[in-house]
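Progress report, Aim 2. The chain analyzed during this reporting quarter is listed below.
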Amino acid sequence: MKRITTFILLFTIATATFAWGPKGHRIVAQVAYDNLNTKVRKHVDNVLGKQGMVYLSTWPDEIKSDTIYPTSFTCHYQDLPGGMTDAQVAATLTDYPEEGGELFMALDSLEAVLTRQPDCHDALVFYVHMMADRFCPMHLAHLDDKGGNAVKMKWFGQNTNLHSVWDSKIIENKGFSYTEYAKYLYNVYGKQRKEILRMTDEQTLLHCYHVTDAIYQYHPTWSGNAYHYVYYWAETAEYQMYMAGIKLAQSLNTILK
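Predicted structure tokens for the chain:
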């Protein structure tokens, strides 16, 4: 694969963390792929292979065990303190935080690479993946608990943590394949597509930040019943995935036009 030397130097080593699990990333990528315009979809297929955008959407997580991009870990998330004002949260998109990850900086760098080199294979794969990360609530989680990894939970009798629940466990509960889930999201949330397209980067970031804040506020009141957790939060997780797919497609339609 073509190496992305123009932004790889921005990466720094940190503890490995995952945003949406494999299924979540494929769901987001499938929603985005279905919303690419004809010209951009053809270009993406030429660069990544037919529907490669979906199949390769998990690759940036898979290579964390390899040496190909050994310092990319912190570019998958941007943990933020709780209690920030809307203005403070919005400012992080351009005034990058000094700690808690480098997701926003990585996305800006990838956009610059793709604007200059629209056929850069690895930049496109990383962009697809990290745009999905940006809409995962636990990738805007708190600094002091490692993005929810230190918040322990029991999930249907199994030990886990808050980060893992939002990465994959809520999504897996429905039992859909990623293609079934993508179609389901279109059928359930498709009417909100135009509203999502009108949202600015600041608005989508604030939406996700407030979702994350609500998750933290809910946690101390949770009874420990995983069925209720799914009942209470599944629609929120689904909307975040749908929003991620629509905004990813909108961005690619603009960058690769």
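The radius of gyration is 17 Å. Strands lie at 152-155, 158-161. These observations will guide the mutagenesis work planned for the next reporting period.
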